[in-house]
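Pasting two entries for a bug report.
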Amino acid sequence: MRKLKLKPLSLHRENLYAKVAGHGGKKPVNSPGHDTIPVENREGTDSKKGSDGRLAWGSRTDIGLVRSHNEDSFLVQAPVFAVCDGMGGHAAGEVASSIAVQTIAENAPLHADDVLLGAAVEAANTKVIEGARTGKGKPGMGCTASCVLIENNKVAIAHVGDSRIYLLHAGALVRLTHDHSYVEELVDAGEITADEARVHPSRSIITRALGNDPDMYADHFTLEVTAGDRIIVCSDGLSSMVEDSEIEDIAVSSVDPQTAADNLVSAALEAGGHDNVTVVVVDVLDDGSQEMRRRFRRRWIRGGIIAFVAILAVIAAGVALYVGNSWYLGDNNGTVGIYSGVPFEFLGIKMGHLVDTSSVQTEDLPATVQQDLKEGVPVDSEQTAQSTVESYRDQIDTDKTDAAVTANRSQANSDSSDSSGSTDSSSTSR
């Protein structure tokens, strides 16, 4: 399996779409030089177009100017698109190509898996062989098969024969498939040029096709594309009549897929229309990158929210652990109380609660201690709190004892002074 990757670039065609939409959805017109042969009302022509928001497509098949019937079939079943060019003459080639596109449609994978898409083409080969054997067609009938399945920025490709798949990227046309033909082998060997191959007398000899070999296998690979890319799937009725350089010019200058398909068929007819010509054009409008960016942003935002919540949870757990292991002394309606937590409020919620009371009156303590108790005095543990309360009690008792002793001394001194004064008075009067 080959994987190709092209650098994402945008085409001016996106601006053209916007201009068309801005003019009331009017049908776009051909650019100068691409309106030589009208194709819409010709006998034996058919087309399908549409859009699903991610892809826009258009298609056109035409009997040509020489053949009496159309052996081409095409599949437009988004996201699967295919062209099959029938071989085997009247009532045979068209049967083979019809069987092929129906089988590919029934067996195409749900995702851009080129291996499974190749398997669908190989299943179509089996069905064509069975059709010839059971009389649904004719012995020797066969067809080419070139198909794509587009999913976001991936395109799965499966290919057999000389129908082709092109990619228009950044204004440059790239042929993605390799013809399974005699003249292509001559080109690969360097014996003729690609332009000579278009007019070589043996150009109709196909070296690999559906319908003649049960062991036939399909070429398959995956390609990465980007919004603005245009994919062209066509029968050799186009590629054998119109040079790749002209296909590129028409593809670049056509505003939408249906216009591009019509212009390419018209160019093949103008060049002679020697064969049936079928063209399917698909534009990649949305390669999924915007959705991927949106998903990334959503994941980033969700991740940020989860991380923020986790951080808050850790902080809350830390705060709860700290608060649960903290103690302080406070004023409990005039007495010293022992509290668990911290002496603060958060969003109106008190972060501490009373655990034990005491008989120690705050008014008996020094003014500075009373003020500290109103604000909360942190301590290491409940035992430390109990010890501090006892120290307050002892301090009060000591202060009261000292005050009593001082009062007694003052009273004694006062009594002594009074006694001395009385004695002096008595002596003087005698």
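Entry 2 (this is the one that rendered wrong in the viewer):
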Amino acid sequence: MRIRRILAAVIATAALAGLGLTGAATATAQGGPSYVTPSQCRQGGGEPRIDLPGNPCVGGEFDGQTVD
């Protein structure tokens, strides 16, 4: 009986840890760098528009991110 409870606790802990790691990876992917350089914007197929409010990268891979 005691072994079953310990095994259940270990499995539950491992499952929760796995969910936590998945959430952390998702947060990192979504919350990546919010600023790109003008050259990164161009290499991604966009155009840095520092003349617009917020200095966005328009188009391409970094569309909408701030150009720094």
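Dev reply: Rendering is fixed now. As a check, the viewer should reflect this: The radius of gyration is 22 Å.
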